[in-house]
Automatic annotation (TrEMBL):
Pfam families: HD. Keywords: Hydrolase, Iron, Metal-binding, Nucleotide-binding. It comes from Neobacillus ginsengisoli. InterPro entries: Diverse_Catalytic_Enzymes (IPR051094), HD/PDEase_dom (IPR003607), HD_domain (IPR006674), HDIG_dom (IPR006675), YqeK (IPR005249). This is bis(5'-nucleosyl)-tetraphosphatase (symmetrical).
Amino acid sequence: MEREEALKIVKEQLTEHRYQHTLGVVETAIQLAEKYGADVVKAEMAAIFHDYAKFRSKEEMKEIIKEQGFPHDLLEFNGELWHAPVGAYLVEKEAGITDREILDAIRFHTSGRINMTLLDKVVYLADYIEPGRHFPGVDEVREIAKESLDKALIKAIQNTILFLMKKNQTVYPDTFHTYNDLVQKLED
Ligand code: DGI
Ligand code: FE
Ligand code: FE
């Protein structure tokens, strides 16, 4: 699928604000893919579609998670996590994207996973540092991203965990698993 067609499909699913965020993620994902040697075309496609399901109702997302046998523990945690696996499912079903690597990068763009691929990392980090993001600590992660994809990712996940904990929110176990996995591999 061409970039323009993909953007048109996604635009219809999103608010203008979320579409502008998506364009920022696309631009950043391309830059990171070029810098760190990921597949630029797949990075672009995954970035375009990463928040495809962001505005689906909680009811629809819940149903899909149950029916498709996605990890049911997701339902016990923050609903913000759901649009990632549901997005991967709907992007395949509705937009006809079949590439596993692209679908996985979408699936794991919020929680991460153990053994993240280069493409997963590029999309995760691009989502965090795209130019439209303005939360505390994002500039530090942008700086680290110039030197190390893994170190930037670790800092981004640390910030997210701390942010959730400060608000007395739960943290999905896969977020911790992703963090631990990246730190352990960095030490090797
Ligand atoms: O969809 P975006 O806003 O672009 O970004 P995202 O897909 O990374 O969603 C992040 C949101 O999910 C953020 O507001 C924090 C929230 N969230 C809730 N619980 C968790 C979580 N994020 C992670 N990584 N882990 C959690 O356990
Ligand atoms: Fe998202
Ligand atoms: Fe996003």
